[in-house]
Amino acid sequence: MAGTDRGAGPHAAAGERPQPAIILVEPQLGENVGMVARAMLNCGLSELRLVNPREPWPNAKAEAAASGADVVLAHARVFASTEEAIADLAHVYATTARSRDMVKRVVTPRQAAAELRGQARRGERAGILFGKEAKGLHNDDVALAEAIVAAPLNPAFSSLNLAMAVLLVAYEWVVAPAAETATPDPDQGAGQMVIGKDTRPAGRAELLGLFGHLEAELDACGFLRVAEKRPGMVRNLRNIFVRAGLTEQEVRTLRGVIACLVAGPRKRRE
Predict the structure, then answer these.
(1) Does an H or E element contain 181, and which?
(2) Are 154 and 95 in contact (CB under 8 A)?
(3) 197-244 pLDDT, tens per residue?
(4) Which of 101, 103, 191, 106 is nearest to 147 (CA)?
(5) Contact at 8 Å (CB) between 162 and 27?
(6) What single-letter DSSP state applies at residue 132?
(7) Are 55 and 30 in contact (CB under 8 A)?
(8) CA gyration radius for the chain?
């Protein structure tokens, strides 16, 4: 479909900030990145992050395929790792059509959009991970997300190209009712975390700091000594803490617990 209002601006359709960041992990072809940028701008999204793209960046093929979505490509940021790309975010979702050997909450793109709107209203930054064209996301990337986004497509053939997947999720974001005007759902909020006034949900940088602290000490004490089992054990541990929905105060408490256990018992003062 053709038709563009050049005066509308990149954020006209979104109507609310902060927007979710679209994060492409190890994209392989510049053309696909360009088509993703086009799909994003169709839905008023403009924050694109690239993790270790295979082709050099900036990329002329991406610019040609973007069909005028230059503002998205011009402000795209490149990161060396998924951890770096999500460090400033409070919420992370991972898109995948494959079953994973881990316990994760699964939501549809529509449910994810409703959650993203609520997070935006509270000023909490979020991002959505999309894997590379050939194989999708690594399990280590999925482990960093609090939920999996899976579209209820034909189970016998649910393969989407990268731009189609981004458009599907971005469209649900743009048509989701604004959090202030949405009709209340009697089931909404069941099981959600209530945050006190003196704390907030832990950001991904704080969780990654906890992971690094814990894993370093587990390496030191020999818990992760079996090399072939280490990746799966690390993913399991990370899943536990991501699924818990920790606050920043809880992260600080856990890091204090780790430090105390490493220091060992102290003699009680007489």
Answers:
(1) none
(2) no
(3) 577 889 999 999 999 999 999 999 999 999 999 999 999 999 999 999
(4) 106
(5) yes
(6) B
(7) yes
(8) 20
